[in-house]
């Protein structure tokens, strides 16, 4: 994995593991984008229907969208992540048409703006409730994890050699816990997930908490994280794991 360094000073409230993951993920994503040749921007990413340019534009837009939530927390003035789902998609399409040099610059500048916004929040502002793009109420402090998840998973989605085995182990543990909680509220199968490298064990209750008989799924921590996130990754050691619906 490439060496990752944090960006800027850190507010006392936003220090700790999650902010470190965000900083490392940002550095990894920026370095990965910098290593992509101009001609490769128009090639497919790992996400269906999106080129690498689409994905890079989305990550830049996401920094500004989360910045809207930070502004909301700082001022108390309701500021949604996106004006609408249609506007979000239009912005991604427009961004995907920008020259690679502009996209590289946008990713860096938007990440720096978000880091500065994080650093400026007060303890009271971090606790203020905002809403995600899906309308879920969360404390502003949740935006740090949302950004960590965005930059680290999408570093893999760029499909240029970064894999789940390259992501920080503590991030993967937190990611698996996050996804299992979300999947337990969904309509997917019940799962008993066991990391055979000693990382832990997790359960998905399945079908909106129905408590159906769980399927045992085993593998390394990166393999389980990739499976839960619906991404290619290291092979699981269990046979024929069930297909999973989208989780976000």
From TrEMBL:
What domain of life?
Answer: Bacteria
Q: Where is this region: Disordered?
A: 1-20
InterPro entries from the UniProt entry: DinB/YfiT-like, Maleyloyr_isom, MDMPI_metal-binding, SCP2_sterol-bd_dom_sf
Supply the Pfam families for this chain. Answer: MDMPI_N
Q: Which GO terms describe its molecular function?
A: isomerase activity; metal ion binding
User: Where's the Mycothiol-dependent maleylpyruvate isomerase metal-binding domain?
Assistant: 26-159
Q: Which UniProt keywords apply?
A: Isomerase
Note the Gene3D superfamilies from the entry.
3.30.1050.20, dinb family like domain (1.20.120.450)
Classification via NCBIfam families: maleylpyruvate isomerase family mycothiol-dependent enzyme (TIGR03083)
Q: What is this protein called?
A: Maleylpyruvate isomerase family mycothiol-dependent enzyme
What organism is this sequence from? Metallococcus carri
């Amino acid at each position: 994995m490439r060496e990752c360094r944090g960006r800027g000073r850190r507010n006392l409230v936003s220090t700790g593991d999650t902010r470190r993951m965000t900083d490392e993920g940002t550095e990894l994503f920026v370095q990965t984008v910098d290593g992509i040749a101009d001609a490769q921007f128009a090639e497919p990413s790992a996400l269906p229907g999106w080129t690498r340019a689409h994905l890079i534009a989305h990550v830049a837009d996401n920094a500004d969208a989360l910045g809207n939530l930070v502004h909301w927390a700082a001022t108390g003035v309701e500021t949604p992540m996106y004006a609408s789902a249609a506007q979000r998609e239009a912005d991604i399409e427009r961004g995907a048409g920008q020259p690679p040099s502009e996209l590289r610059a946008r990713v860096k500048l938007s990440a720096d703006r978000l880091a500065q916004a994080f650093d400026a929040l007060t303890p009271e502002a971090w606790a203020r409730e905002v809403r995600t793009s899906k309308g879920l109420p969360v404390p502003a402090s949740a935006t740090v994890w949302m950004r960590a998840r965005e930059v680290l998973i999408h570093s893999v989605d760029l499909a240029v050699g970064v894999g789940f085995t390259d992501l920080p182990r503590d991030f993967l543990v937190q990611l698996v816990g996050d996804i299992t909680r979300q999947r337990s509220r969904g309509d997917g199968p019940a799962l008993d997930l066991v990391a055979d490298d000693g990382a832990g064990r997790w359960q998905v209750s399945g079908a909106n908490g129905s408590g159906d008989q769980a399927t045992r799924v085993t593998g390394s921590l990166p393999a389980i994280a990739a499976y839960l996130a619906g991404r290619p990754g290291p092979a699981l050691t269990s046979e024929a794991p069930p297909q999973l619906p989208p989780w976000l």
